[in-house]
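Can't attach files on this board, so I'm pasting raw text. These are the components:
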Amino acid sequence: MTERSEGIKRHGPVVTPSDEGGLMTDRFAKNYAELRDDQPLGTRNEIVTGPVEDWATDFSHLEPEWAADPYPIQDDLRQRCPIAHTDRFGGGWLPTRYEDVAAIAYDTERFSSRSVIMSNFRPPRELAPVGGTPPISSDPPFHQHARRLLLPAFTKTAVGRLEPATRAFCHSLIDGFAGQDVVDAARDYAQHIPMRVIGDMLGFPPEDGPRFREFVENTLEGVNLPPEERIARMEQLFDYLLEQIRDHVANPREDLTTYLIEAEFGGEKLQPSHVAGTMALLLIAGIDTTWSAIGASLWHLAKTPADRERLVADPGLLPTAMEEFLRAYAPVTMARLVKEDMHWAGVDMKAEDWVLLSFPAANRDPAQFDRADEVVIDRQVNRHAAFGLGIHRCVGSHLARMELRVALEIWLERIPAFSLDDPSAVTWAAGQVRGPRTLPLRVG
Amino acid sequence: MRAQIDSGRCQGHGRCYDLAPDLFGDDDEGYGTVLGDGVVPEGKEPDARLAASNCPERAIDLLEEG
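---
Top answer:
C-alpha coordinates for the assembled complex are below.
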Protein backbone atom coordinates (compact mmCIF):
# COMPACT_ATOMS: atom_id res chain seq x y z
CA MET A 1 0.00 0.00 0.00
CA THR A 2 1.35 3.40 -0.84
CA GLU A 3 1.10 6.65 1.04
CA ARG A 4 -0.34 8.76 -1.71
CA SER A 5 -2.82 6.30 -3.12
CA GLU A 6 -4.78 6.66 0.11
CA GLY A 7 -5.22 10.41 -0.16
CA ILE A 8 -8.55 11.79 -1.17
CA LYS A 9 -8.62 14.27 -4.04
CA ARG A 10 -10.71 17.35 -3.54
CA HIS A 11 -9.71 19.98 -6.06
CA GLY A 12 -8.35 20.11 -9.58
CA PRO A 13 -4.95 21.55 -10.43
CA VAL A 14 -4.21 25.08 -9.27
CA VAL A 15 -3.74 27.76 -11.91
CA THR A 16 -0.92 30.12 -11.02
CA PRO A 17 -2.14 33.69 -11.31
CA SER A 18 0.14 36.53 -12.30
CA ASP A 19 -0.71 39.07 -9.62
CA GLU A 20 1.26 39.04 -6.37
CA GLY A 21 -1.77 38.91 -4.07
CA GLY A 22 -3.20 36.00 -5.97
CA LEU A 23 0.13 34.23 -5.91
CA MET A 24 0.26 34.53 -2.13
CA THR A 25 -3.20 33.10 -1.81
CA ASP A 26 -2.67 30.33 -4.28
CA ARG A 27 0.63 29.19 -2.82
CA PHE A 28 -1.56 27.61 -0.13
CA ALA A 29 -4.51 26.56 -2.27
CA LYS A 30 -3.70 22.85 -2.21
CA ASN A 31 -4.94 20.77 0.67
CA TYR A 32 -2.93 18.06 2.37
CA ALA A 33 -3.94 15.24 0.05
CA GLU A 34 -2.84 17.28 -2.96
CA LEU A 35 0.45 18.29 -1.40
CA ARG A 36 1.12 14.61 -0.77
CA ASP A 37 0.39 13.86 -4.41
CA ASP A 38 3.41 15.98 -5.30
CA GLN A 39 5.71 13.71 -3.32
CA PRO A 40 7.36 10.43 -4.26
CA LEU A 41 6.28 7.28 -2.43
CA GLY A 42 7.54 6.09 0.91
CA THR A 43 7.73 2.52 2.17
CA ARG A 44 5.61 0.63 4.66
CA ASN A 45 6.24 -2.41 6.77
CA GLU A 46 3.96 -4.82 8.57
CA ILE A 47 2.71 -3.47 11.91
CA VAL A 48 3.74 -5.69 14.82
CA THR A 49 2.18 -5.11 18.24
CA GLY A 50 1.80 -7.15 21.40
CA PRO A 51 3.92 -8.08 24.40
CA VAL A 52 7.69 -7.83 24.04
CA GLU A 53 9.53 -11.13 24.50
CA ASP A 54 13.01 -9.81 25.07
CA TRP A 55 13.73 -6.08 25.13
CA ALA A 56 17.21 -6.69 23.71
CA THR A 57 15.90 -8.25 20.50
CA ASP A 58 12.25 -7.18 20.24
CA PHE A 59 11.91 -3.73 21.86
CA SER A 60 8.89 -1.53 21.31
CA HIS A 61 8.49 1.86 22.92
CA LEU A 62 4.78 1.71 22.16
CA GLU A 63 3.90 -1.13 24.51
CA PRO A 64 2.19 -0.36 27.85
CA GLU A 65 5.11 -1.73 29.91
CA TRP A 66 7.43 0.90 28.43
CA ALA A 67 4.90 3.71 28.87
CA ALA A 68 4.35 2.76 32.51
CA ASP A 69 8.04 2.68 33.47
CA PRO A 70 10.78 2.57 30.82
CA TYR A 71 13.71 3.19 33.18
CA PRO A 72 14.25 -0.35 34.53
CA ILE A 73 14.10 -1.61 30.93
CA GLN A 74 16.67 0.94 29.79
CA ASP A 75 18.94 0.29 32.79
CA ASP A 76 18.84 -3.43 32.14
CA LEU A 77 19.61 -2.97 28.44
CA ARG A 78 22.48 -0.59 29.15
CA GLN A 79 24.16 -3.36 31.14
CA ARG A 80 23.50 -6.42 29.05
CA CYS A 81 22.89 -5.13 25.50
CA PRO A 82 23.69 -1.44 25.13
CA ILE A 83 22.48 -1.27 21.53
CA ALA A 84 19.26 -3.28 21.48
CA HIS A 85 17.51 -4.34 18.29
CA THR A 86 13.95 -4.90 17.11
CA ASP A 87 12.44 -6.33 13.96
CA ARG A 88 9.31 -4.26 14.60
CA PHE A 89 8.90 -1.02 12.63
CA GLY A 90 10.80 -2.65 9.78
CA GLY A 91 13.97 -2.86 11.90
CA GLY A 92 15.57 -0.54 14.41
CA TRP A 93 18.14 -0.02 17.15
CA LEU A 94 18.01 1.36 20.66
CA PRO A 95 21.25 2.66 22.18
CA THR A 96 21.01 3.30 25.91
CA ARG A 97 24.50 4.60 26.75
CA TYR A 98 24.99 8.37 26.84
CA GLU A 99 28.14 7.99 24.76
CA ASP A 100 26.32 6.23 21.90
CA VAL A 101 23.30 8.54 21.97
CA ALA A 102 25.62 11.57 21.81
CA ALA A 103 27.72 10.09 19.00
CA ILE A 104 24.62 9.45 16.87
CA ALA A 105 23.16 12.90 17.58
CA TYR A 106 26.43 14.44 16.38
CA ASP A 107 26.81 12.19 13.33
CA THR A 108 24.53 13.78 10.77
CA GLU A 109 26.64 12.28 7.97
CA ARG A 110 25.58 8.72 8.70
CA PHE A 111 22.24 9.21 10.48
CA SER A 112 19.44 11.13 8.79
CA SER A 113 16.63 13.08 10.45
CA ARG A 114 14.38 12.51 7.42
CA SER A 115 11.88 11.06 9.85
CA VAL A 116 12.21 11.54 13.60
CA ILE A 117 9.20 9.46 14.60
CA MET A 118 9.92 5.73 14.53
CA SER A 119 6.88 4.22 12.87
CA ASN A 120 5.86 1.70 10.25
CA PHE A 121 6.33 4.16 7.44
CA ARG A 122 9.58 5.54 6.04
CA PRO A 123 9.13 8.69 4.03
CA PRO A 124 10.77 8.66 0.60
CA ARG A 125 14.52 9.29 0.51
CA GLU A 126 13.86 12.18 -1.86
CA LEU A 127 12.28 14.02 1.08
CA ALA A 128 15.79 14.63 2.46
CA PRO A 129 17.32 17.06 3.21
CA VAL A 130 14.10 19.01 3.99
CA GLY A 131 11.85 16.35 5.53
CA GLY A 132 8.18 16.78 6.37
CA THR A 133 8.57 19.10 9.35
CA PRO A 134 11.66 21.30 8.92
CA PRO A 135 14.01 21.92 10.63
CA ILE A 136 13.66 18.89 12.95
CA SER A 137 13.32 16.59 9.92
CA SER A 138 16.08 18.31 7.94
CA ASP A 139 19.67 17.30 7.30
CA PRO A 140 22.62 19.60 6.57
CA PRO A 141 23.13 21.83 4.73
CA PHE A 142 19.44 22.71 4.33
CA HIS A 143 18.85 22.27 8.05
CA GLN A 144 20.76 25.38 9.02
CA HIS A 145 18.66 27.66 6.81
CA ALA A 146 15.37 26.30 8.09
CA ARG A 147 16.59 26.53 11.69
CA ARG A 148 17.91 30.07 11.44
CA LEU A 149 14.45 31.24 10.41
CA LEU A 150 13.14 30.15 13.80
CA LEU A 151 15.95 30.91 16.23
CA PRO A 152 15.31 34.66 16.77
CA ALA A 153 11.71 34.05 17.88
CA PHE A 154 12.86 31.49 20.46
CA THR A 155 15.77 33.19 22.24
CA LYS A 156 15.62 33.59 26.00
CA THR A 157 14.95 37.31 25.56
CA ALA A 158 12.17 36.77 23.01
CA VAL A 159 10.36 34.15 25.09
CA GLY A 160 10.85 36.27 28.21
CA ARG A 161 8.30 38.68 26.73
CA LEU A 162 5.69 35.92 26.98
CA GLU A 163 6.29 35.35 30.68
CA PRO A 164 3.78 37.85 32.14
CA ALA A 165 0.91 36.42 30.06
CA THR A 166 2.03 32.86 30.93
CA ARG A 167 2.03 33.70 34.65
CA ALA A 168 -1.44 35.21 34.43
CA PHE A 169 -2.70 32.15 32.56
CA CYS A 170 -1.26 29.72 35.18
CA HIS A 171 -2.97 31.72 37.92
CA SER A 172 -6.27 31.59 36.05
CA LEU A 173 -6.03 27.80 35.73
CA ILE A 174 -5.46 27.46 39.48
CA ASP A 175 -8.30 29.90 40.19
CA GLY A 176 -10.45 27.39 38.33
CA PHE A 177 -9.64 24.68 40.92
CA ALA A 178 -11.61 26.52 43.62
CA GLY A 179 -13.76 24.16 45.65
CA GLN A 180 -12.10 20.95 44.38
CA ASP A 181 -10.16 18.60 46.65
CA VAL A 182 -8.76 16.55 43.78
CA VAL A 183 -7.62 17.99 40.45
CA ASP A 184 -6.09 16.36 37.42
CA ALA A 185 -2.79 18.23 37.12
CA ALA A 186 -2.04 16.79 33.68
CA ARG A 187 -5.43 17.43 32.12
CA ASP A 188 -6.48 20.61 33.95
CA TYR A 189 -3.11 22.35 34.35
CA ALA A 190 0.00 21.02 32.56
CA GLN A 191 -1.51 20.52 29.10
CA HIS A 192 -3.15 23.94 28.89
CA ILE A 193 -0.02 25.99 29.50
CA PRO A 194 2.03 25.08 26.42
CA MET A 195 -1.15 24.86 24.31
CA ARG A 196 -2.02 28.45 25.12
CA VAL A 197 1.53 29.75 24.73
CA ILE A 198 2.34 28.14 21.37
CA GLY A 199 -1.21 28.74 20.09
CA ASP A 200 -0.75 32.45 20.83
CA MET A 201 2.69 32.49 19.21
CA LEU A 202 1.26 30.94 16.05
CA GLY A 203 -1.82 33.17 16.18
CA PHE A 204 -4.38 30.36 16.44
CA PRO A 205 -7.79 30.83 18.11
CA PRO A 206 -7.49 30.02 21.84
CA GLU A 207 -10.70 28.00 21.72
CA ASP A 208 -9.02 25.49 19.38
CA GLY A 209 -7.00 24.03 22.30
CA PRO A 210 -8.95 20.73 22.43
CA ARG A 211 -8.19 20.15 18.74
CA PHE A 212 -4.47 20.59 19.45
CA ARG A 213 -4.65 17.79 21.99
CA GLU A 214 -6.17 15.53 19.35
CA PHE A 215 -3.44 16.45 16.88
CA VAL A 216 -0.74 15.68 19.42
CA GLU A 217 -2.17 12.28 20.31
CA ASN A 218 -2.70 11.41 16.66
CA THR A 219 0.85 12.26 15.67
CA LEU A 220 2.79 10.74 18.52
CA GLU A 221 0.62 8.05 20.01
CA GLY A 222 -1.13 6.78 16.91
CA VAL A 223 2.05 5.31 15.46
CA ASN A 224 0.79 1.71 15.29
CA LEU A 225 -2.62 2.55 13.80
CA PRO A 226 -3.49 1.24 10.32
CA PRO A 227 -2.00 3.47 7.61
CA GLU A 228 -5.30 4.78 6.23
CA GLU A 229 -6.28 5.89 9.73
CA ARG A 230 -2.93 7.53 10.31
CA ILE A 231 -3.10 9.42 7.03
CA ALA A 232 -6.65 10.57 7.71
CA ARG A 233 -5.50 11.94 11.07
CA MET A 234 -2.47 13.65 9.56
CA GLU A 235 -4.79 15.17 7.00
CA GLN A 236 -6.90 16.70 9.78
CA LEU A 237 -3.84 18.38 11.25
CA PHE A 238 -2.43 19.70 8.00
CA ASP A 239 -5.78 20.85 6.64
CA TYR A 240 -6.31 22.74 9.91
CA LEU A 241 -2.89 24.37 9.51
CA LEU A 242 -3.58 25.26 5.87
CA GLU A 243 -6.87 26.83 6.96
CA GLN A 244 -4.98 28.96 9.51
CA ILE A 245 -2.39 29.87 6.90
CA ARG A 246 -5.03 31.04 4.43
CA ASP A 247 -6.66 33.11 7.14
CA HIS A 248 -3.29 34.72 7.88
CA VAL A 249 -2.65 35.38 4.20
CA ALA A 250 -5.95 37.28 4.10
CA ASN A 251 -5.35 38.96 7.48
CA PRO A 252 -1.62 39.24 8.25
CA ARG A 253 -0.76 39.54 11.95
CA GLU A 254 2.27 39.88 14.21
CA ASP A 255 2.73 36.17 14.82
CA LEU A 256 4.79 33.18 13.73
CA THR A 257 2.30 32.09 11.07
CA THR A 258 2.48 35.39 9.22
CA TYR A 259 6.24 35.42 9.75
CA LEU A 260 6.62 32.00 8.09
CA ILE A 261 4.27 32.91 5.23
CA GLU A 262 6.42 35.94 4.46
CA ALA A 263 9.83 34.41 5.26
CA GLU A 264 12.32 33.94 2.45
CA PHE A 265 15.61 32.34 1.82
CA GLY A 266 17.67 32.49 -1.31
CA GLY A 267 15.31 35.25 -2.49
CA GLU A 268 12.30 32.92 -2.55
CA LYS A 269 9.36 32.39 -0.28
CA LEU A 270 9.08 29.02 1.44
CA GLN A 271 7.34 26.07 -0.16
CA PRO A 272 3.80 25.62 1.20
CA SER A 273 4.79 22.21 2.58
CA HIS A 274 7.68 23.87 4.43
CA VAL A 275 5.43 26.53 5.99
CA ALA A 276 2.80 23.98 7.05
CA GLY A 277 5.44 21.42 8.14
CA THR A 278 7.21 23.91 10.38
CA MET A 279 3.90 24.99 11.89
CA ALA A 280 3.02 21.35 12.56
CA LEU A 281 6.36 20.93 14.29
CA LEU A 282 5.92 24.03 16.45
CA LEU A 283 2.40 23.05 17.41
CA ILE A 284 3.05 19.38 18.21
CA ALA A 285 6.52 19.67 19.69
CA GLY A 286 5.54 22.85 21.49
CA ILE A 287 2.72 21.19 23.38
CA ASP A 288 3.18 17.59 24.44
CA THR A 289 6.83 17.98 25.46
CA THR A 290 6.30 20.78 27.96
CA TRP A 291 2.97 19.32 29.06
CA SER A 292 4.94 16.15 29.86
CA ALA A 293 7.75 17.98 31.66
CA ILE A 294 5.36 19.99 33.85
CA GLY A 295 3.31 16.88 34.62
CA ALA A 296 6.30 14.67 35.42
CA SER A 297 7.75 17.33 37.74
CA LEU A 298 4.45 17.67 39.64
CA TRP A 299 4.14 13.87 39.79
CA HIS A 300 7.60 13.64 41.35
CA LEU A 301 6.83 16.37 43.89
CA ALA A 302 3.47 14.82 44.73
CA LYS A 303 5.11 11.52 45.63
CA THR A 304 8.24 12.98 47.24
CA PRO A 305 7.16 15.23 50.14
CA ALA A 306 10.76 15.99 51.19
CA ASP A 307 11.56 17.53 47.79
CA ARG A 308 8.26 19.37 47.67
CA GLU A 309 8.72 20.85 51.14
CA ARG A 310 12.28 21.85 50.38
CA LEU A 311 11.24 23.70 47.21
CA VAL A 312 8.35 25.43 48.95
CA ALA A 313 10.75 26.61 51.66
CA ASP A 314 13.47 27.59 49.18
CA PRO A 315 11.97 28.69 45.84
CA GLY A 316 15.45 29.86 44.76
CA LEU A 317 16.33 26.19 44.29
CA LEU A 318 13.69 25.74 41.59
CA PRO A 319 15.91 26.48 38.55
CA THR A 320 18.37 23.81 39.72
CA ALA A 321 15.63 21.32 40.65
CA MET A 322 13.94 21.86 37.32
CA GLU A 323 17.08 20.79 35.44
CA GLU A 324 17.10 17.63 37.52
CA PHE A 325 13.47 16.89 36.63
CA LEU A 326 14.41 17.44 32.99
CA ARG A 327 17.30 14.99 33.35
CA ALA A 328 15.46 12.28 35.28
CA TYR A 329 12.14 12.53 33.41
CA ALA A 330 13.30 13.81 30.02
CA PRO A 331 10.10 13.61 27.99
CA VAL A 332 11.55 13.42 24.50
CA THR A 333 13.05 10.57 22.50
CA MET A 334 13.97 11.26 18.87
CA ALA A 335 14.63 8.92 15.95
CA ARG A 336 17.07 8.76 13.07
CA LEU A 337 17.33 6.67 9.92
CA VAL A 338 20.60 4.92 9.06
CA LYS A 339 21.82 6.21 5.71
CA GLU A 340 23.95 3.28 4.48
CA ASP A 341 24.80 -0.26 5.64
CA MET A 342 27.58 -0.04 8.21
CA HIS A 343 29.24 -1.60 11.20
CA TRP A 344 28.64 0.80 14.07
CA ALA A 345 29.74 0.35 17.69
CA GLY A 346 29.76 -3.42 17.32
CA VAL A 347 26.47 -3.89 15.48
CA ASP A 348 25.59 -4.23 11.81
CA MET A 349 23.24 -1.44 10.90
CA LYS A 350 21.42 -1.57 7.58
CA ALA A 351 20.39 1.34 5.43
CA GLU A 352 16.92 2.54 6.45
CA ASP A 353 17.10 0.97 9.93
CA TRP A 354 15.64 3.20 12.60
CA VAL A 355 17.63 4.39 15.57
CA LEU A 356 15.58 5.34 18.59
CA LEU A 357 17.60 8.14 20.13
CA SER A 358 16.67 7.91 23.79
CA PHE A 359 17.71 11.06 25.59
CA PRO A 360 15.92 9.71 28.69
CA ALA A 361 18.19 6.63 28.66
CA ALA A 362 21.30 8.75 28.07
CA ASN A 363 20.31 10.94 31.02
CA ARG A 364 20.34 7.96 33.37
CA ASP A 365 23.66 6.49 32.31
CA PRO A 366 25.82 6.02 35.44
CA ALA A 367 28.92 6.49 33.28
CA GLN A 368 27.83 10.10 32.74
CA PHE A 369 25.99 10.99 35.96
CA ASP A 370 26.66 10.29 39.63
CA ARG A 371 23.66 8.74 41.35
CA ALA A 372 22.09 8.53 37.89
CA ASP A 373 18.98 6.71 39.10
CA GLU A 374 18.23 9.17 41.91
CA VAL A 375 16.47 12.51 41.67
CA VAL A 376 18.85 14.96 43.35
CA ILE A 377 17.13 18.34 43.27
CA ASP A 378 20.26 20.31 44.13
CA ARG A 379 22.50 18.58 41.59
CA GLN A 380 25.13 21.17 40.64
CA VAL A 381 26.71 19.53 37.61
CA ASN A 382 23.97 18.44 35.26
CA ARG A 383 25.04 18.10 31.67
CA HIS A 384 21.80 16.41 30.66
CA ALA A 385 20.59 15.91 27.12
CA ALA A 386 16.85 16.47 27.62
CA PHE A 387 16.80 19.00 24.77
CA GLY A 388 19.03 16.92 22.54
CA LEU A 389 22.63 17.39 21.52
CA GLY A 390 24.22 18.84 18.39
CA ILE A 391 22.59 20.73 15.56
CA HIS A 392 19.05 19.63 16.41
CA ARG A 393 19.07 21.09 19.94
CA CYS A 394 15.40 21.75 20.71
CA VAL A 395 14.63 25.13 19.16
CA GLY A 396 12.02 25.75 21.85
CA SER A 397 14.21 24.91 24.84
CA HIS A 398 14.18 28.45 26.22
CA LEU A 399 10.42 28.59 25.83
CA ALA A 400 10.01 25.21 27.50
CA ARG A 401 12.21 26.25 30.42
CA MET A 402 10.25 29.47 30.88
CA GLU A 403 6.94 27.61 30.88
CA LEU A 404 8.18 24.87 33.19
CA ARG A 405 9.66 27.36 35.69
CA VAL A 406 6.57 29.56 35.73
CA ALA A 407 4.19 26.59 35.93
CA LEU A 408 6.02 25.03 38.88
CA GLU A 409 6.70 28.32 40.67
CA ILE A 410 3.04 29.34 40.60
CA TRP A 411 1.77 25.88 41.49
CA LEU A 412 4.09 25.65 44.53
CA GLU A 413 3.19 29.18 45.62
CA ARG A 414 -0.56 28.61 45.31
CA ILE A 415 -0.73 24.91 46.24
CA PRO A 416 2.22 24.17 48.53
CA ALA A 417 0.71 20.95 49.90
CA PHE A 418 -0.39 18.22 47.50
CA SER A 419 -0.08 14.47 47.04
CA LEU A 420 -1.02 11.68 44.65
CA ASP A 421 -4.70 10.96 45.15
CA ASP A 422 -4.45 7.46 43.70
CA PRO A 423 -1.04 6.37 42.37
CA SER A 424 -2.64 3.61 40.29
CA ALA A 425 -4.80 6.15 38.45
CA VAL A 426 -1.79 7.93 36.95
CA THR A 427 -1.42 7.21 33.22
CA TRP A 428 1.53 7.98 30.93
CA ALA A 429 1.66 8.77 27.24
CA ALA A 430 3.13 5.95 25.16
CA GLY A 431 5.59 6.65 22.40
CA GLN A 432 8.44 9.07 21.91
CA VAL A 433 7.11 11.80 24.16
CA ARG A 434 6.44 10.50 27.64
CA GLY A 435 4.65 12.28 30.44
CA PRO A 436 1.58 11.93 32.67
CA ARG A 437 -1.73 12.18 30.84
CA THR A 438 -3.87 11.54 33.92
CA LEU A 439 -2.50 12.85 37.20
CA PRO A 440 -5.09 13.13 39.98
CA LEU A 441 -3.62 15.18 42.83
CA ARG A 442 -5.16 15.81 46.23
CA VAL A 443 -4.90 19.53 46.78
CA GLY A 444 -7.47 20.15 49.51
CA MET B 1 41.06 32.89 34.24
CA ARG B 2 39.70 33.49 30.77
CA ALA B 3 36.49 32.00 29.35
CA GLN B 4 36.09 30.99 25.72
CA ILE B 5 33.14 29.55 23.81
CA ASP B 6 33.87 27.20 20.94
CA SER B 7 31.32 28.43 18.40
CA GLY B 8 31.71 25.19 16.48
CA ARG B 9 30.30 23.30 19.45
CA CYS B 10 27.85 25.80 20.99
CA GLN B 11 24.23 25.01 20.03
CA GLY B 12 22.50 27.72 22.02
CA HIS B 13 21.30 25.65 25.01
CA GLY B 14 21.94 28.78 27.07
CA ARG B 15 23.08 27.08 30.25
CA CYS B 16 26.04 29.49 30.51
CA TYR B 17 24.02 32.68 30.35
CA ASP B 18 21.35 31.17 32.64
CA LEU B 19 23.86 30.19 35.30
CA ALA B 20 26.47 32.96 34.96
CA PRO B 21 24.77 35.99 33.42
CA ASP B 22 27.64 38.24 34.56
CA LEU B 23 30.06 36.30 32.38
CA PHE B 24 28.01 35.09 29.41
CA GLY B 25 25.35 36.54 27.13
CA ASP B 26 23.56 35.47 23.96
CA ASP B 27 23.43 36.66 20.39
CA ASP B 28 20.33 37.27 18.26
CA GLU B 29 19.97 33.55 17.60
CA GLY B 30 20.52 32.44 21.18
CA TYR B 31 24.10 31.21 20.82
CA GLY B 32 26.31 31.89 23.84
CA THR B 33 28.77 34.77 23.90
CA VAL B 34 31.50 35.71 26.33
CA LEU B 35 30.91 39.16 27.82
CA GLY B 36 33.71 41.71 27.46
CA ASP B 37 37.16 40.26 26.86
CA GLY B 38 36.34 36.98 28.55
CA VAL B 39 38.56 37.59 31.54
CA VAL B 40 36.76 36.19 34.56
CA PRO B 41 36.81 38.78 37.38
CA GLU B 42 38.32 37.63 40.66
CA GLY B 43 35.78 35.83 42.75
CA LYS B 44 33.68 34.83 39.74
CA GLU B 45 35.69 31.68 38.99
CA PRO B 46 33.11 29.38 40.61
CA ASP B 47 30.39 30.83 38.36
CA ALA B 48 32.56 30.25 35.32
CA ARG B 49 33.21 26.65 36.40
CA LEU B 50 29.50 26.07 37.08
CA ALA B 51 28.63 27.28 33.58
CA ALA B 52 31.36 25.19 31.95
CA SER B 53 30.40 22.05 33.85
CA ASN B 54 26.75 22.38 32.81
CA CYS B 55 27.28 22.97 29.11
CA PRO B 56 25.74 19.95 27.37
CA GLU B 57 27.98 20.47 24.35
CA ARG B 58 31.21 20.99 26.34
CA ALA B 59 31.69 24.21 24.38
CA ILE B 60 33.20 26.32 27.16
CA ASP B 61 36.92 26.38 27.78
CA LEU B 62 38.37 28.00 30.88
CA LEU B 63 42.00 28.96 30.48
CA GLU B 64 43.93 29.45 33.68
CA GLU B 65 46.26 32.43 33.23
CA GLY B 66 49.37 33.74 34.90
